[in-house]
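Review session, final week

We close the course with one last complete record, chosen because it touches almost every idea we covered. It is Laccase, a protein from Lactuca virosa with 490 residues. Go through it on your own first, then we will talk.
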Amino acid sequence: MAAFFIPLLIISFLSVISSGANAEIQFHDFIVQETPVKRLCRTKNVITVNGQFPGPTLEVSDGDTLIIKVLNNARYNVTIHWHGILQLGTPWADGPDRITQCPIQPGASYTYRFTILNQEGTLWWHAHSRWLRATVYGALIIHPKLGSSYPFPLPKLEIPILLGQWWNGDIMSILNQAMFSGGAPNVSDAYTINGQPGDLYRCSSKDTMRFYVESDDRILLRIINSALNQQLFFTIANHKLTVVGVDALYIKPFTTTTLMLGPGQTTDVILVADQAPGYYYMAARAYESSQNEPFDTTTTTAILAYRFAPCINRQIGPPVKPVLPRLPNYNDSVTVTAFTSQLKSPSKVEVPTDITEDLFFAIGLGLVNCSPGPTCQGPNNTRFAASMNNVSFVLPQTTSLLQAHYQNIPNVFTTDFPPVPPLVFDYTGFWQLQSRRYSIRFVANNPGVWLMHCHIDSHLTWGFAMSFLVENGPGKLESIEAPPLDLPPC
């Protein structure tokens, strides 16, 4: 029996209120399939949605209901997660594999149904089964309700920027090899902007992404770090970026030249095209503070192109090279701290003060000693592992956690997750790595099973996760609804 550790939180579920007569119901079809894609001089089949890499952008408004049928025509099991959507009252639509549903098996389908409630900004969707999100992802943009607007001047253009990682090898083979060896996975061969590596990689220049603007344009860039395993710096040569939102929340605006986004994070910035007409690189590369293991040190670029700028085509005129920005050093934690310390609410936030559950988590990466051999390829004949309060998470095989909870299926999970670390140690000095403490408070007002995990997928694979089980409340509208009839079986 696999062991699962879930703290129980009693809730009072808030009823879902209609968001207005102007809300729409959107229907979409997602076909998961293998698609030949050429990058870095070679063509290989990757898993995509509707043959697109990145996948289709969903543009919705606050209050809209989405009905998305996912047909799995690929050879792997798959689920889709709507990253950042609150899923109030719709836990069966959240998507993490073996947490809220069993995966959609090859040849089968499942329809996700959920409503956007009081959310605006930039989110995204991605596969949430094994490492398929390396290529199965796309933007999810939430516009204000009809009659509402942004809390900043309306931009002339809105451009989604999806940062990603690319491997020349098959991503599932790379995952399987890492799981077998116990070592770190092979580093990626490139980073990408909207699926393209850019000018600094071989066989990539002609497909480098270009974004055309005119002088004095105000542009809203919706930047998403879709990378599988890497935090990333992002900047644009000679331009300042005014940060106005993160993870579908407006913030107090501030101006910077460099962003840092962890995997899964989104940042909305206003860019003013106030430089001399020309060509300017936007660029992204790794932020890796510890550098204990190899990582991809390459740089991806796209081009911010001013209209009426001198010609960049060699066949028409002399070459005009884009300006390359200065990026921070890979381990520049000072720049990261300067950036993150400015992320503040635009107004005073009333945090919960009636604390009914108090949990202290010590989270981190570690090494497990094992006998020398092909399955002990971590440092000094070890295997990498990750834990929360000394517990490594293991996924169930025969059902999902939400189904096990709803149907009272025994022997799937336990509820003895330790509320404090069983072993007390110097939490700020462990491994001499940079350690931080965070005060995180939330009201458990949505019944279901919700996965808390590291969004660096190699860490999740090593066990860096746990689940919150939020029980039903006393009212009629405070209970988990029955699962959809087409919920996939394991």
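Two points worth writing down before the exam:
Residues 1-19 have pLDDT under 50 and may be disordered.
The helical segments are 171-181, 333-340, 401-406, 457-461.
Good luck, everyone.
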